[in-house]
Structure formats: C-alpha cells, structure tokens
Amino acid sequence: MTPATYRYARVLSIAGSDSGGGAGIQADLKTFSALGCYGMTAITALTAQNTVGVSGIHGVPPEFLKAQIRAVVEDIGVDAVKLGMLHAPEVVEVVAWAIDHYKLDKVVLDPVMVATSGDRLMAAETVQVLVRELFPRATVVTPNLDEAALLVGHAVDGVDALDGAASELLALGARAVLLKGGHLPGKDVVDLLAEADGERLRLASERIASRNLHGTGCTLSSAIAAHLALGYALPEAVERARGYVVAAMAAGADVQVGAGHGPLNHGFAPVPTVRLPLPGA
C-alpha cells in the first residue's frame, strides 16, 4: 500500500439542502469541487425547492446535526467552514458549540434569511441568537441588502449607504462583513468588505443581465471558504471568490433551467483537486 503523503483542502458546509440543486449544500459542493477543494456537509434542513420557489422546509433535529459535524470533523478534519441556512435557535447553538469545541477558525457565515424567490428561510426569533452566537465567531459575515436590512432594522438604499450599514453590522459583533450590493440599481454591482480593524475594500464589476441568479449568495460564501481553506488571506479570498461567481454567472446566463431563477454555471472551468502535503510527510 502506498503511504499517504498528501491531503486535500477540506471545506465543510453546514447548511440546508436545495432539492433543485441551485443553492444550499448542492451549490456549495459544486463550488468546492470547482475550486479544487474536498467538500463535506452537515445538513441543517431539507427544502422542497425548485427554480420557482420553496414549497416546504423540514428541519433536521439538532442532535443529528451535531452527529453529522462530529462524524466529519473527528475523522476527515476541516480547514474551513461555510454556514448557510440555520433556521432555529437550537441549530445555531449546535454550530456555536462546534466552532468552539473543534477550534474552527476559518468560518464564513452567510445569514440565509431570504431566498432569491423572496421566500423567508429563517424564523424571526432565530435572528437574535444568530447575531449573538455566530457574529463574533465567524471570520466574515456575508449578508445581501435584504438580509442586512433585517439585521440593522432599516433599508440600505444606495451605494453611499454601504459604509454606514457595514459599520452597524460590525457593531453587532462581526469581525468582518462583506456587504453585497447586488440588489441596488445601476450598471455596476458594488460590494464592500469591511473589517473590524478599519480596513475597507470596495469591489465593483459590471452587472450581468441574467435570470439565473439562484444560489449566488451560497456560491459566493462557499467560494470564500474554499479560498480560505487553500490558504489565502480574507481580502484575497473574497476577491478570488467574487471573480469566480461573476464568471459563473456569465457562463450560465444563456442557459434555461426550470421556469424561474436558474442556477449559475458552477463547473465552467473546474480546477483539479488541490493536494496539500501531510504534516511530517
């Protein structure tokens, strides 16, 4: 038997399942694979979902979520974590326990509250627990404008308002925030990365005309986690992840999948799985 001298860059998605394949853990796994990482999952909820909307949500019991996380981390190990749909306070508390218990230090929190279709995916009473328990533990929080508005209590109504809203989100305890401005009007999409130490990075790209935007937020957050797992610092991980998402949107713009909001083309230019040296090998 050939002795092992390498391992993969390992990324765990703790999120909900999208039966339509465009968002949630399905988008995360496609993204991890496309960027050369080994993807794993701990499923928080099942959704009956397609390109038109969400017709049902079935939560996974918290103890079984904990069992999934324990099985993966204690055997395979984790280099970075992406957090997606966390629909109940008990689920949030399991995730907070796992971050502390296993000392998970590269955590991307996508506060999935509203789907592209407009469906509410997080119970209102969960938001307070999410902010209290996970904002301080996450490396970066990645809300879109609808989610940011729910978190700060008012609309974010222009590019000039991004800085103020980012400061409000940092004041809630986040270590870094990537505030996504894709829902603002204009020919360019402007996002803002704000860190608690005062660093700010504006990222802009030309808007892509496409109906296939389902799972964009899931894909971006999982791409950031993948790049963190590969060893990039947060600003470069965000820039690289954003470039991947923009290209995946462009590659899927002329494809029809379903009758509503279709997915990105996650596999437009897959990277071979990255092999990292085993410690001591």
From TrEMBL:
Keywords: Kinase, Transferase. One of its GO terms (molecular function) is hydroxymethylpyrimidine kinase activity. It comes from the Bacteria. Pathway: Cofactor biosynthesis; thiamine diphosphate biosynthesis. PANTHER family: HYDROXYMETHYLPYRIMIDINE_PHOSPHOMETHYLPYRIMIDINE KINASE THI20-RELATED, PHOSPHOMETHYLPYRIMIDINE KINASE. This is hydroxymethylpyrimidine kinase. InterPro entries: HMP/HMP-P_kinase_dom (IPR004399), PM/HMP-P_kinase-1 (IPR013749), Ribokinase-like (IPR029056). Pfam families: Phos_pyr_kin. Its EC number is 2.7.1.49. It is an enzyme of class 2 (transferase). NCBIfam families: HMP-P_kinase (TIGR00097). Residues 18-265 form the Pyridoxamine kinase/Phosphomethylpyrimidine kinase domain.
